[in-house]
Amino acid sequence: MADPSPSFPARLAAYLAAPRAVTDLRRYFALGSASESEPFTGRRFEHLAEGGDRPEVAHRITAEDLIAVQTLSVTVPAPVALDILEGPLGARLSALLSAVPTDTDMADATAADLSVGSPADQAWNLLRHQPDVGWVIAGKILARKRPRLLPVYDRVVRCAVGRPRPSYWLALHAALRADDHALHRQSLALRRTAGVPETVSALRVCDVVVWMGHRAEGHACPH
Is residue 222 part of a domain? Predict the structure, then answer.
């Protein structure tokens, strides 16, 4: 029997096409009358200290990056944070980050930039295997350093769109490139319509729309 559940690209497309997408973006980024009295702290994720991908810090993880990650409701354990800032872990991550493109959107990247064994994948695996870090925190750290190339992927987004194979990165890459980059262009159009600054990547727009949309549905997301 065929699996009746929507495919990953179809789920993603449904969130981006939802009537609430623009309002959700405006609420999340505290824009105009759509903002909440207590706006989401995640609106500062990419903008804190002028961003994690600015040239002078693009290849090293800073204290500002670790604070920015906290705006997405996770905390890097103190021993790991110190190793990143002052120890060999930070040096290893810097060497890997220096080989990860800084000015490439995921939709324009090659699969090799995101595949198993790539510098980005090595950095993610190095982070996620640190004590009490795991895949969510690792992904958020790397999304701060490469906001155009690497997505935020947490339990809410996973609950919304599933666990595509061979990996979320590669499945999202394929979805954003399909049909002449249709979903990527749709994310850019949502950004323009909502008035979100251009410093927020198309990838981050996609993440926020999915996260906000699924949160509004009230689904219980298993750990």
Answer: no
Total number of domains constituting the chain: 1
Question: Which pLDDT score is estimated for 112?
Answer: 97
Domain span holding position 77: 8-215
CA angle 176, 30, 55 (to 5 degrees): 60
Provide the pLDDT for residue 140: 98
Neighbours of 48 (CB within 10 A): 18
* Under 8 Å between Cβ of 25 and 191: yes
Which residue ranges of the chain lie beneath pLDDT 70?
Answer: 1-5, 34-38, 219-223
State the number of CA atoms in the 13 A half-sphere of 100 facing the CB: 31
Structural domain includes residue 16: yes
Residue type, 35: S
Separation between Cα atoms, residue 80 and residue 131, nearest integer Å: 7
Give the integer Cα–Cα distance in Å for 32 and 62.
32
Of the candidates 88, 56, 79, 55, the residue with the CA atom closest to the CA atom of residue 66: 79
Per the domain annotation, does 223 fall within a domain? Answer: no
Give the whole-angstrom CA distance, residue 220 versus residue 196.
29
